[in-house]
Design goal:
single chain; globular; alpha/beta; 11 strands; six-stranded mixed beta sheet; 41% helix
């Protein structure tokens, strides 16, 4: 079978993917998604580059920052890298910003082989994230969550801020704008706790101009409200550079941030499965789904509401995402809720 490359210009996470399944997860359900398949990587990159040039011509100049040198040991770093995870229906959206300076343990990063979080799973993810967050290793970072209010006394980390995802979406009417808010918030709080670095980047999901438009309330279906309208203590951090697949750059702060964010989100699902166990009709336990499979999400949602009620269900779900309305409709028809 001939290998293909799938370029997503507009989707939940723009980028170039090497299989249809991964591409599909980033465009399915996204309004006016733009994506194409190509036989060569060069053609896919050209398609993405044209998108940047078109946006720049329409909306103004791109942000320019000093070039960043490759990550190697024994360098004096001064950089913040950020990433987020969790657009799916269940669970929190989590953003993390990591600040590399000359105090962090470079030997640890070499030992852990900080790399693409999508390739780090299970016990290795927990081990890597725990080592990153261990205070003795002097890594500077910020964790921001967006989900309804809940308390997990067993959690192994401390989040810096928690926002209600549904309130953020009500303010912006755009899930990508919520994503931009979360990235900006993590970076802002990292700067406020430590200092402003020479270079700031995040794992690209939009080009720089569109990212800043989201923060200013400008964009598709937006309500014209900036992040400061939602939270007066927020401010837009300027000169942040989107980097394509920054979370996959070896030993980069964005890769470290992606690992921590993924671990924090995983901890939430473990908490729910332990504190709110759901059993199916055959007496088998069902874990809270982490993806966007409609059938699994509906089945789990109806069982969860029947056992624990709508109030808790509403805290743990994103009401703007499918299949929230369908689950509530079916629950009412089955007289599970009124």
């Amino acid at each position: 079978m001939t290998k293909k490359y799938y370029a997503v210009r507009k989707g939940f996470k723009p980028g170039i993917y090497e299989n249809w399944e991964e591409c599909h997860t980033h465009v399915d359900g996204f309004s006016n998604a733009e994506f194409k398949g190509f036989k060569t990587l060069a053609d896919a990159k050209n398609y993405m580059q044209r998108a940047d040039e078109e946006e720049s011509a329409l909306e103004g100049e791109r942000y320019e920052l000093p070039a960043r040198e490759p990550y190697t040991k024994q360098k004096n770093y001064n950089e913040i890298g950020a990433d987020e995870t969790g657009k799916e229906f269940y669970g929190p959206m989590v953003s993390c910003a990591v600040y590399y300076d000359d105090e962090f343990n470079q030997d640890l990063f070499e030992e852990l082989e900080i790399n693409d979080s999508k390739k780090i799973k299970g016990s290795k993810l927990e081990k890597t994230a725990s080592a990153l967050m261990d205070s003795k290793n002097k890594l500077k970072f910020t964790i921001v969550e967006a989900i309804g209010d809940y308390s997990n006394p067993k959690q192994k980390y401390e989040h810096d801020t928690r926002w209600d995802f549904n309130e953020l979406f009500e303010h912006t009417n755009n899930v990508n704008a919520v994503q931009a808010f979360m990235i900006n918030q993590a970076i802002q709080q990292t700067i406020d706790k430590f200092e402003e670095p020479r270079y700031i980047t995040y794992d690209r999901f939009e080009n720089d101009t569109t990212y800043y438009n989201y923060l200013k309330g400008i964009g598709n279906k937006m309500k014209g409200k900036s992040i400061t309208d939602f939270n007066p203590n927020s401010r837009i951090i300027e000169n942040i550079k989107a980097t394509h697949q920054a979370d996959a750059i070896k030993n980069s702060p964005s890769a470290a941030a992606a690992i921590i964010a993924k671990y924090v989100r995983n901890e939430f699902f473990e908490f729910v499965d332990q504190e709110y166990p759901v059993i199916d009709q055959n007496g088998e336990p069902i874990r809270m789904p982490q993806g966007d499979d409609p059938e699994k999400n509906v089945k789990y949602g109806l069982l969860f509401i029947k056992e624990y009620g709508r109030e808790i269900f509403d805290k743990f779900t994103k009401h703007s995402r499918d299949p929230y309305d369908e689950i509530i409709k079916l629950a009412k028809e089955a007289d599970i809720i009124t």
